[in-house]
């Protein structure tokens, strides 16, 4: 029970910390206020806790499509007027630990994608990124003694036959809560 509660609280903290949601299309860029997105994600997390699968939520002419696995969100897409205007893939953190002055993290992306996901860590520019599987990566961040969170700056680049949109977004993994 305590483990579930801790996991749920961590997820809510991550969801609230994702910051400003920006949905990009080739012609158009739409921004949503941070609080609206945090409320939406937190509310949806409560609705799908311990469930897995695809969920849709429609509000006006916009639809959010999300994929959840055991109460964690791994994909989100927004449609406006029946046209996809943005999509996000969220990593599943397999392992993360601090050893000496380095932070090690293994992440996978549970939802298959045809394009390419590129990411950087703007707060910690001294890092090494290695692909360790089809959709799996290992990150080593150097000089990480004061690290308490890792902000991923992600960019999705679709393949030629991909129906997804190119998108830039960020994701925060909390290492230590203050």
Q: Helix segment count?
A: 2
SS class: alpha+beta
The ordered string of helix (H) and strand (E) elements is HEEHEEEEEEEEEEE
Question: How helix-rich are the residues, as a percent range?
Answer: 10-25%
Strand order of the largest sheet: 3-4-5-6
In short:
The protein is an alpha+beta fold and about 180 residues long. It contains 2 helices and 13 strands. It has helices at about 1-15, 35-45; strands at about 20-25, 30, 55-60, 60-70, 70-80, 85-90, 90-100, 100-110, 115-120, 125-135, 135-140, 150-155, 165-175.
Your description of this structure?
The protein is α+β, with helices and mostly antiparallel strands and 178 residues long. It has two domains: 2-89, no CATH class; 92-174, Immunoglobulin-like. Helices cover 16% and strands 50% of the residues. It is built from two helices and 13 strands. It has a four-stranded antiparallel β-sheet with strand order 3-4-5-6, with no helix packed on it. A four-stranded antiparallel β-sheet has the order 7-8-11-10, with no helix packed on it. A hairpin with a 4-residue loop joins strand 1 (21-24) and strand 2 (29-32). The chain is globular.
